[in-house]
Amino acid sequence: MITASNTEPTTAQAHPADSAAAASFATLLGKLDYLTPADVESVRQAYRFADEAHLGQLRKNGDPYVTHPIAVAVQCTEWKLDAQALMAALMHDAMEDCGVTKQELTERFGAPVADLVDGLTKLEKLEFDTREQNQAESFRKMLLAMAKDVRVILIKLADRTHNMRTMSDMPRSKWGRISNETLEIYAPIAHRLGLNFTYRELQDLSFRFLHPWRYEVLSKALNKSRHRRRDLMTRVQLEVENEFSRHGMPVRAMGREKTLFSVYRKMDNKHLSFSQVTDIYGFRIIVPEMTDCYTGLGILHQLYKPVPGKFRDYVAIPKVNGYQSLHTTLIGPFGTNIEFQLRTHAMDVVAESGVAAHWLYKASEPNSDTSQRLGTQWLQSLLDIQQETHDASEFWDHIKIDLFPDAVYVFTPKSKIMALPRGATVMDFAYAIHSGVGNRAVAARINGEQRPLRTELNNGDVVEIVTDDKAEPNPAWLSFVKTGRARSKIRHHLKTVAQEKSNELGERMLNQALRSEGIATLPSDEGTYKATWEKLLRFTGNKNRIELMADIGMGKRIASMVGKKLAVLLSETGLKPDPLLISTERYASGHDGSASQGLVTLDGSEGLSVQYAKCCKPIPGDRIVGYLGRGEGLVVHAEECPTSKRLQMRDSERFLEVEWADETVRPFETTALVTMNNGKGVLARVAAAITTAEADITHVDMGDEPAQTATDIRFTLAVRDRVHLAHVLRSLKRTPSVLKAQRYKPSKA
Ligand code: MN
User: Is residue 338, in this structure, part of any structural domain at all?
Assistant: First the structure.
């Protein structure tokens, strides 16, 4: 090994700080024997760069700052990480603390190293509030998912480990927060990745800085008891191994040492005394085959007497995370309780590797054999991939798919974490927060930028929903929401609203129809005209008045006919129509003398009871007519629409007069036909022109004719009215490469 004293003796003497840096780098060099000389040289260059970048910065203990990145790199050599990872480890704090840019790193060390450093810098910026337990789990997953390369997580763990080891140099006020974060975020990640040594070290270090006094006391007590029990452990190990050999099954019995943290956690959670926790001795026995677990159990129970009620069969019934073992507690020599775990090698691998455990949880098949086999297979394939691909990011992609096949983690503006299925959109998020937020959503900001409600969310997005009390769910949302919750909430709301709106519409239409018959107001169905209403409902076949109104509103019954019948029934009771009212109503409503169904005003808030025809897509400012389809409610067409003209000839009594309200509450969709030259970036310019004119593109239809010099593209746009559309078309016409822009009109076909 090269040491500082024989490489740079003079510097060491002149600058004690430099010598500390050189000494620790020498330690790192000594651990690089698994790299090629060229790789070692690259690592050396990264060290020089980092040393220069951190020049003059000191750690809290007075050492040059660069000793920290070196220590992180040393930890990475324990996991035999490659040169790129070691270089990134050496420079991991350079971007954050020294104003080094990513571009500079890319130029000097290549994109892969620069990406690693950049990834680490981004993780560094994530702040986490550990007060909420379930958020810790989400945060861990997000952290893992955000890192595009497994090496980022490994370097991060090495970084955290070194910071924990040197925590005593930090001000005491920071110990609690950092230790909690380590305990809840980083230790479980280490566990999940199978880095069990790091997992236990991080737990013990966190415990030490969270509860220094308890740690001291426990640590002394544990040392003492370790001494006391050595004889017993050796004796039990010999006795057990001999007994198994005698039965023709040679095994190794391994004494299990409890970590300080696990002792503490047991005492704390189960309110046990120190001796209650530590006087239980633990052994693990690895047997060849699954059935040997049970044979082994028989051997053990003959050797020592079992403690009743302490046997657990996690082989037949694995724990939810896939853990399998037989557990039993026996009374050993001197009457001491000894815990035994029996498992196969495959089960042991799964038990020690949290990554596999998580995957097994996902698979969670009732058949333990299958889940274990799959778990082992998966683990094996993981190791294969790791060995076969030198591309760490490809490896990481595999893990990620298995770990989080279907989740995306995003934040509310108040930094609350929400887990949503992959592909979830802004609206899924809105409904996940509260159905009131979803129902009233009008706009969204993602990471501070205005984005459409249909936008798919990415890990780490901060999502903010803008609501409006007057807003209502849009049926179009159903086409892009991913979660069942959002879907059912939207459906439920639309249905309820549609029902109410149909009732209202029906009531209005019948009232109007009755005026045309000379009766000014719709009488109540209670009191004087109760019997009249009953007759009317028998005639229409409806259960009650509300249902009849809904039927009229939905177009299942025609208002003028019901009105006529009601007028006849009312006149039978002596209520005579007012001839003056008849003439004014009929004069005002009909141009052609057809029975009036009343004027309906539309402002876009009608929900499902009113639909805007797909053929002509009318917008405010267009002359419109309403067609009462059979059971589909009111369909609004443009007056000159060929489809509606055809329907009018055939089915004129189903038409009623409609008009736009002076103020509409939402944009309406219509289609613009744009003819443009083919060319690079043209579509983007056209889309930009539309957006600049404040219209939303909801659909683009390119047609499938082969590309020629000019193309027709149909944009479905959401606009306020005709004036707005004209503005959009003008803006399109001014766009270079656009030859023609007009509103799309359905052909007469
Ligand atoms: Mn660091």
Answer: yes
